[in-house]
Amino acid sequence: MQEKERQRIIQRFEDWWHRDNRGLPLMRVIAIREDPPLPIPKVIEPANREEQYTRLEFLHSFMQYYIATHEYMADAFPSFGANFGPGSLALYLGAEPRFEPDTVWYEPCIDDPETYPALHYDPDNRWWVRHRELVRRLKEAAGNDYRLDIPDLIENIDIYFAMRGPQDALYDLIDCPEKVHEFIRQIDDSYFRYYDEFYDIVRDEDGVSSYTAFYILGRGRVAKIQCDCSAMLSPAHYREFVLPSLRAQTERLDHSLYHLDGPDAIRHVPAIMELKRLDALQWTCGAGQPDGTSPRWFDIYDQVAAADKSLWVQIYDGNVDNWIRGAERLMDRYGKKRFYFVFPDMPERDAERLMDYAVNHWENE
Q: Would you say 346 and 30 are in contact if contact means Cβ atoms under 8 Å apart?
């Protein structure tokens, strides 16, 4: 990526974080090339499931292949997240992974919260050492071709649920809440020890970093934050066990995006909007639900707009004409300054139609 384009995209994201998009809304548009330039890089296939996540040669060759066969348009930027699953902080603190084709699960390891040792930063944990070295080597291999993202560490009570097991963790909220609070404090204390080391590896010369989930970047420390187990929590438990950790996390990050996952998490939006330093909300609609442009979700967006935060919206139902109408429906209601529209990878002709329409109808409105 040319330096001028790199700086343009950085500024576009900075404007979005501050609810001040200029011209077009922030958009991720990626076209599948009909005639990619030859030779197309060959993907070095992994030998097993573990190598699918851990082998540098496979991961780098996959990204080279993707860049060669796709065109990044609008505000899309090439980046890669080398993840040991969603929530690798659990590995560094003592869990073991189970590698599957589509994700990595973590084997519960806290059998008794009353006797399990305290969780703490361990510079010699084998998964941490291995993950950090993989990200470092990928950063060197990527050069200026693509960014390396900060991996998907995940945080607070989600890590406790992964290490304890969801059912037992829910009982713990009732049976030994002070012990749960203690473990969450230990997880919080460990999070930035690991995050900061990754940040120092992947940040560019301007201190800009990108986070593996949801294609976000910005100047300084950037992260997606979440509480997926909130679908199983009451609003009172969410405020007691989750909100303090999130508040402390947002206060240490330069830019933060909350990942709201599924209809059962919607009841926590009022609490989430109380996080003053939170910049934006990302809404995952859930299986079988309409995409992010549906009026069904306006109650969520009304609360986000009232709290003066940005919105990350995924658009995928129907065809490119449906995507255009859906985006316009949101901009008609909320304006365009706070939106980041994320579209699925699409054929070149659809990408060109979308971009032509956006430039002619959205840029100067």
A: yes
320-334 helix and 348-361 helix, angle to the nearest 10 degrees: 30
Which pLDDT belongs to residue 223?
Answer: 98
H helices within 71-143, ranges in order? 89-92, 126-142
- Please give the Cα distance from 307 to 317 (Å, whole number): 28
User: Side chain identity at 35, as an amino acid letter?
Assistant: D
Q: Specify whether domain 3-361 bears CATH 3.30.420.10.
A: no
Q: Are 148 and 80 in contact (CB under 8 A)?
A: yes
CA 65 to chain CA centroid, nearest Å: 22
- Give pLDDT, residue 365: 61
Residue 32 is given by DSSP the state E
Q: Is 119 exposed, middle or buried (0-12, 13-18, 19+ CB in 10 A)?
A: buried
Domain ranges of the chain: 3-361
> Long-range contacts made by residues 102-109, C-beta under 8 angstroms, separation at least 24?
104/53, 106/162, 106/163, 108/162, 108/163, 108/164, 108/165, 108/168, 109/163
CA 189 remoteness from chain centre: 21
State pTM to two decimals.
Answer: 0.97
Distant-in-sequence contacts of 55-59, Cβ < 8 A, 24+ apart: 56/134, 56/137, 56/138, 56/141, 59/134, 59/138
Q: Are strands 70-74 and 26-32 parallel, antiparallel or unpaired?
A: antiparallel
221 Ramachandran zone, left/alpha/beta (phi>0; psi -120 to 50): beta
* 303-329 tens-digit pLDDT: 999 999 999 999 999 999 999 999 999
Flag residues of the chain having pLDDT under 70. Answer: 365
pLDDT at 22: 87
